[in-house]
Amino acid sequence: MAGWRDLRRLTRGYRRPIVGAAALSLLGTLLALTQPLLARAAVDGAAAGHLSWPVLGALTALFAAQASALALARYVQAHTGERMTRDLRRTLTEHLLRVRIAAFDDGRIGDLIARACGDTTVVKTLIAQSLGTGLAGVVGLAAAVGLLAWLDPSLLAAVVVLFGSSFGALLAVVRQVRIASRTAQTAEGALLADLERALGGIRLVRACRAEPLEARRLDTSAGRAHAANLRMAGMVALSGPANDLAVSGAFLAVLLFGANRVSTGAMTLGDLVAFTLAMTYLAAPVFEIFQAVSAVQQGSGALHRINEVLALPVERDRPVAVARVRGSARRTRPVLEFRDVWFGYRPGAPVLRGVGFTVPARGQVALVGPSGAGKSTIFALAERFYEPDRGSVLLHGRDARFTPYDRHRAAVGLVEQDSPLLAGTLRDNLLYGAGPVTDRDLNRVLAMTGLTRVAAGLPAGLDTPVGDHGRRLSGGQRQRVAIARCLLARPDLILLDEPTAHLDPDSERALAATLHDVAQVCALMIIAHRFTTVRSASRVLVIDDGVIAASGTPGELLLTSPYYQSLAEVRLTPPHPIHPVP
């Protein structure tokens, strides 16, 4: 669980408004405690047969001042809380956007979203609202007890006994609130993760008729969240009766003992009214203290979950100055080189084993091989989503580990097989991360990728929304948009993962011509399973079981590589005729 050190760190930058809100709350409490003294004078005057209008006027002014101070305190608390939530969410989102890809492999995106949204709200209540009022409550409680002791120590003793017994019960409940709160927040995160899983794959869910399965899964997660929240609510609810019982018992005791002391002349009626009124103000700081302690218990679990996110490792550039590579060196050196690269997603289970190859500054290099051989892993290392366990990845002859991530990824573009698009317009997706682009360059790339007609057929052209994940476009259109986006960024090397997977034969031929033109100005590295894509490459690497089983030109591999021969045979074998069904 998070401790006070974490709270001190989190409140850095917000302590002044928190203390200001606490001071205003304390001012309201002190103004309230002044009222019983004036009330005593007013009651004693009324009992003697005359009303003191100045005293009544002073009481009215005190009531107004108390209300103003408390209202201003609440506003300062709310303003501070919202500002802190915004800043904390900014910190979390900026951190999450820099977290290493390997950390996402082990977590659930929905739970991380819950931590960035729901848990920050809990921490906001803890920091901005409860700590300040809790501090004011402690001081207000001490002042209220001092006033009660000055008015009548005997009655105060009865009040202390009753409130002391309820406090013991409250502390026992508070210890359980911390555990229940952590469990509830974890359950809420799991529910959001399951919902994100189902809605993110809603087409698969519908196609597999798995709505009942996902509904049961979500119902189970919702049931766990319900049970956890219900348990926490029960813990909090137990505090209410204990506090109410203490207040009611204290009032009854004060009225009984006080009436007896008034009848004996030990105190005046005004003294009894002042003591009773002061005791009502004793309940407010007690409640504020309990609320603060309860919030600390609940917020501690949320803060711990936030700290877990902030502890996830992020991509950090090494503090090594690297000079830019001159244009002549770019043309002569390989744009990418793997030197004896070993890598595994888990210790002791290498996916790549001693892989080594070079990619020249121009032309096409194709990767072929069975599924799971390591082709996508090579792309992930080339894009620096992961770092090699052993060996080196070089960009323009320099170790990529000493190149800033932004500069490396500006030089190495990636077009994934599923071609993910973001919610927004077609133009937004084309220019995403591309930097300044002229209309001429945009139109040229649209023509190269066959998107000119696609854009012309949309209702608002390039400004047409593509929908969530680009659902309003076909798979082939999304593939073209991803390629166009990469071309607009003008990288030195483009990684294409099965670029023809969603294309028809005509579009595939058009893309082949486009890639041939692109390969004249930059390097292309293509994962391919179709012979039509591979045969236009200047060099082919056959990947099998994490090693390079063969390499060479398409013509050479037709003579030396059994896998490449089988790939060519599949392409060259005529399809079976399709007979109409009678």
From TrEMBL:
Domain ABC transmembrane type-1 per the UniProt entry, residue ranges: 19-298
Segments forming domain ABC transporter: 336-570
Keywords linked to the UniProt accession: ATP-binding, Membrane, Nucleotide-binding, Transmembrane, Transmembrane helix
One Pfam family it belongs to: ABC_membrane
Entry's transmembrane regions: 51-76, 131-150, 156-174
Compartments, record wording: Cell membrane
Keyword Signal applies: no
Membrane topology: Multi-pass membrane protein
Main location: membrane
InterPro entries cross-referenced by the UniProt entry: AAA+_ATPase, ABC1_TM_dom, ABC1_TM_sf, ABC_transporter-like_ATP-bd, ABC_transporter-like_CS, P-loop_NTPase, Type_1_exporter
Gene Ontology MF term list: ATP binding
Record protein name field: ABC transporter ATP-binding protein
